[in-house]
Queue: 2 jobs
Job 1
Amino acid sequence: MSSSSQLQPVLDRIDADFDNSLTRLFALLRIKSISADPAFAGDCKAAADHLAKDIASLGFATDVRPTAGHPAIVAKSNSKADGKAHDGGRSHVLFYGHYDVQPVDPLNLWHRPPFEPVVTDHADGRKIIVARGAEDDKGQLMTFVEACRAWKSVTGSLPIDVTILIEGEEEIGSKNFVPFLEANKEELAADFAMVCDTGMWDPNTPAITTSLRGLVYEEVKIKAASRDLHSGVFGGGARNPIRVLTYILGSLFEENGRITIPGFYDGVKDVPPDILAQWKKLNLTPERFLQPIGLSIPAGEKDRLLIEQITSRPTCDINGIVGGYTGEGSKTVIPAEASAKISFRLVEGQQPDKIRKAFRDYVTARLPGDCRAEFSDHSNAPAIALDWNMKPLAAAKRALTEEWGKETVLMGSGASIPIVADFKRTLGLDTVLVGFGLEDDNIHSPNEKYDLKSFHKGIRSWARILAALAEAPR
Amino acid sequence: MSSSSQLQPVLDRIDADFDNSLTRLFALLRIKSISADPAFAGDCKAAADHLAKDIASLGFATDVRPTAGHPAIVAKSNSKADGKAHDGGRSHVLFYGHYDVQPVDPLNLWHRPPFEPVVTDHADGRKIIVARGAEDDKGQLMTFVEACRAWKSVTGSLPIDVTILIEGEEEIGSKNFVPFLEANKEELAADFAMVCDTGMWDPNTPAITTSLRGLVYEEVKIKAASRDLHSGVFGGGARNPIRVLTYILGSLFEENGRITIPGFYDGVKDVPPDILAQWKKLNLTPERFLQPIGLSIPAGEKDRLLIEQITSRPTCDINGIVGGYTGEGSKTVIPAEASAKISFRLVEGQQPDKIRKAFRDYVTARLPGDCRAEFSDHSNAPAIALDWNMKPLAAAKRALTEEWGKETVLMGSGASIPIVADFKRTLGLDTVLVGFGLEDDNIHSPNEKYDLKSFHKGIRSWARILAALAEAPR
């Protein structure tokens, strides 16, 4: 039987087993696998062990593999498959996801405990799964695992060879995972990679992401006096590091939204006129994009479309700032130090190392005497532009269009998935980015959610994609 | 016997009993009476009860009195004394201190737990008492209580009538204490007030403070989106409140150190040439004032002396700032809000209400669309200039000079003690400000200390001042 003739019973099985799929996702969501905070290292290990046991139960040869940080999972559907398909052989996909999640603060803004998942009703009647990781990336990666489970359950095998690779440090820059890829590149050889960590165009329109912004993430600490001071004694005479920090960060942007760091826009190209024309047709309005989050005015470069501001233009955001007294009430302190976390989303043509250096030079040049700046580097990924003509992409696009009944959009994303560049560099693999997230999923925020429809039709989508890949020309 | 002939046995008694004085101070320092944090309300009550019991043991008619906030203590050495001395009667002083202390964060910078007092050696060999409140104001107020104890112990009475008034909300603006003064003004009537909450000129030179800066303390919260956002999805398109906050705060100062808020300097006068000439002679150098805290360059208005910057010029400090992710590692969040605490030290001629309004207008005028600012008011006190010629001041000055063997300096202070204006307004009392703090006491900071010499000679100083006041013309 061809894969396509077996597909319908697989889809039926997915529908029949969906309540159990949800139960399995909830078990994973209950594990507090916050990679950024060392206090949760044990939970990260527990999430890896839990997932590995589940994937092993599908007949995958599965290992939890140590790294210098949180462990990774390598699982092979066909332990004899040793990389790229030979002529006439089966396709071999490396599927990637991550079990680690973002921190949950500010905890007081969650309506429910973040690690006690529930299905509830969204304001507009959609059913949603609410928990930290519901979308990013536990819900998304489980769409693929559940699709494999249905294929195995109905047919006893998968239409193509699959290596599942799950990491635990995506949210903190994959620093230990990239060396792991390098050290295991023969074992991880495949025809191409598929990543489930992106979104749809809208709740009814599937999408494949073909470009991603890069990310440079810096932390800067400004230090002045050797201790905290009383502003009654020293106010007016002693340097205040919060004043220095706000002065420097406050000068990062021109009136028109452009970033003032010298050389920041070097190498950045305008979007080609034909693509820009297509984007204009998509008509991404502030009403659609900003109104749901309580805003109305695009905050980026004033001479750019909103869709350019969020996908094709480089940006700078201050993601965190802290200094001095931040408790209740007042304290007349001049603190000894103040710090901020600043990230830059990069586009094609920008080099992360140059951007980092330009930022550090910018800060250092503005430091008054008596102040020092200390920097730490949290992320360093270039932008990605994928090949729109790669063959697995066409098969995935067709399968998604069939499942959702609407033409699949090929879109740029403003986010960064640095692993895509790492797959190309270390394993030589191109990546197809398919995911079922929505803009209102609150990823990285309180009350993260995943539409129940995304989870259900996401599983069905992967079942179709596996079939389509089996029959696609390679 | 005259007070002066009784003085030597009293001073001898202070020396002999000093170890016990220290034990009693330590018992008070162990109580975590942090007024800013509601979690410590019970400790504030415990501190009031503890002090009241100790003062009652000296024969004072003592009450712990409720306020709308933390309680106050009223203790009278002569319960028949009903306010101002009649012709030929005894002088009557209202002594003021506060038992509440500042919060202790950042706790990790303390070398020892802040509420476990010890006597230890300072780097230069001075013996110091280390604890939160060691100086401000538990150590200082106990110098007066111990002086009263010695007088009572040796002579059975005090040279003048004394009402001791201790509050528990000085560090949070005395909002509930001022109404308490108004409601009890007949009971609190006296000839003048004395406050022990200020410093010496240097470790060997006593001082009386004759001017104080005022304080306006504002908190501002900038709100943008209705929830925290992921910078990969929204970066470039959505308003970032940390960016808005740093832009506004970063523009508060001109290159030359002047504050840019329109009208901020209205009414501010230059120091008279003769006073400025005296100040120049005091020769307060950056080496002396800034080097001990690791700095070297005066940070205020460039065309002013350092001593002007810290005492006679109005200032602005950002005392705290917080927004977004401040934990370990990185999080690509655009937060929904960011906030800062900003204080202004005011000088004679500035009106707190006008300064507050000018600041709020300044912030509001710089808000981009889509942002709101919320303000809260933590303090609102005008500057104080005392009468250099008031009679009790001359007696106190003489007594201090005798104890320390160096001429007492009459000096301006950069700090704010709003209660001084409240005493004048509600009770009609002038205040003499005598204290034994030093610039390196780390008040409001980790590792707060009080020199053992300040505590010991502070007690002796008050014993002398009480005697001098008994014999001074009124």
Note: Chain A touches chain B through 101 residues (CB under 8 Å).
Job 2
Amino acid sequence: MNLLIVGSVAIDTVETPLGKVENALGGSATYASIAASYFAAPGIVGVVGGDFSRKHINLLKRKGVDLEGLKIDRNGKTFHWSGYYEGDMNQAFTRKTHLNVFEKFNPIIPKSYRKAPYILLGNIHPALQLEALAQVKKPRLVLCDTMNFWIASEPKLLEKVFRRADIICINDGEAYQFCKTASLPYAAKRLLAFGPKYIIIKKGIHGALLFGKNSFFSLPSIPLMKVKDPTGAGDSFAGGIIGYLACARKLDENTFRRGLVAGTVMASYCVEDFSCRKTSRLKKTEINKRAALLKKYTHVPSFKLS
Amino acid sequence: MNLLIVGSVAIDTVETPLGKVENALGGSATYASIAASYFAAPGIVGVVGGDFSRKHINLLKRKGVDLEGLKIDRNGKTFHWSGYYEGDMNQAFTRKTHLNVFEKFNPIIPKSYRKAPYILLGNIHPALQLEALAQVKKPRLVLCDTMNFWIASEPKLLEKVFRRADIICINDGEAYQFCKTASLPYAAKRLLAFGPKYIIIKKGIHGALLFGKNSFFSLPSIPLMKVKDPTGAGDSFAGGIIGYLACARKLDENTFRRGLVAGTVMASYCVEDFSCRKTSRLKKTEINKRAALLKKYTHVPSFKLS
């Protein structure tokens, strides 16, 4: 266990123009840990209810995800999200959210996790993100994810999380919202001022940007003819990134760029099927293949006007 | 003269959150020819009125733009667009459109232009684009631009233009609209079926995509702290591309990629000031500098999971 992932473990019912799944494995910690499992040894801190299926547990175990930190509350039910997507599937519409046992979730970090050098704070209440951080020994790297809901309701607490993060992962709309600006470079500059080494701006099908204090990297998404279900793409992206970083020998600019490659590849496989169906069954060669595609798709030949 | 550019020459009044210009030089052929002038020898086919200022003529001449094809209708007034942008300036709002002499514009290609090997069909009525093509000797390469208005009102005529183009330049929203799909790779596939060698999808601040039959290239835009006026960005982009292609020795995949680099650089300078102020005063070193930035910003390090 070298990567602590704090977040939700859920049961999802999802409908898209290309199909439907009921009671499928979901949640930010689930998607992230499965994506990270190809690179690192993740352990989850989360909570599920007595209804959480044995086969979900087995899938996570099979992927090498440590479950000591996954609390099973036999008296409650697992967090259940039901939603749908339309058209370009750019937006998730919620039908039902039953927080169930997740409503009173309080991250308790098992002793064996407290020295984990890498931490992914999934998208949960920033107070819980801070609570998780308070329980661990000084980690090497903390990546925090968030969402518009916390930006609107808890900006001050979120700022505290940002001050303790090494990487902030946020989407473009959220960056505009938090920084009250219409310029991404300006938003990144403001977020960097909180102290993180890098800001990652997620832009969905438009790819992702990596802003450092003196560096900039832009990576497109993999063009896909068919997207079946975008649920979990952002979590798979974050999991791929931190997973890759956790297995890298050094943390230089190229390593962070490779982290984005890993995240982008995992997100691209994630959306090609429902739930974690595809990301849980990948071969290393498939990951390498898409990473090579990204290199090919972005190659800028030398240019000199004389 | 090795590059024929057909399009509008206009007078613009533009207001953005960062300022305002009145009666400034504008129009698709203007922006495109100025951008192309750094690479090729463009000539314009368009029309202006008797009010068209001498200083605008002089600016175009100074940039080496051939004006034999620019008709000056002394009895009329120049096409005048007045508009404004707000917030992230993603959308232009029109206050006034006075077509004036442009209303009865009929492209007449001067004899000296008819053998031009490269042609840019700016965003005008597709019937006029076809009329221009009917007057020229078989060119080496035709790039056509268009807009949502023609897609909605003249889809059949536009399809005829697409069938005669080597490159279609279209923005993402227009591609969705024309192809009735929510998938860009699918839209590109449909457009390629009309026969062009390449489809270029413009995505504004998210950059541009180049789809070939068996190739794909994604290029981001240059991140800018300040955008003063987005007017003409798309035309400068198209002008930079075709200008670069017109000066290239061969037309292989890397040449087309470099074309996108040239277009992206010209668009990035265009939006940093009003009208053609910045694109008309560039040094070659400035163009090379931003081309080098694009290479640096997109470098994907090798990635191999073993």
Note: Residues 3-298 of chain A form a domain with the UDP-N-acetylmuramoyl-L-alanine:D-glutamate ligase fold (CATH 3.40.1190.20).
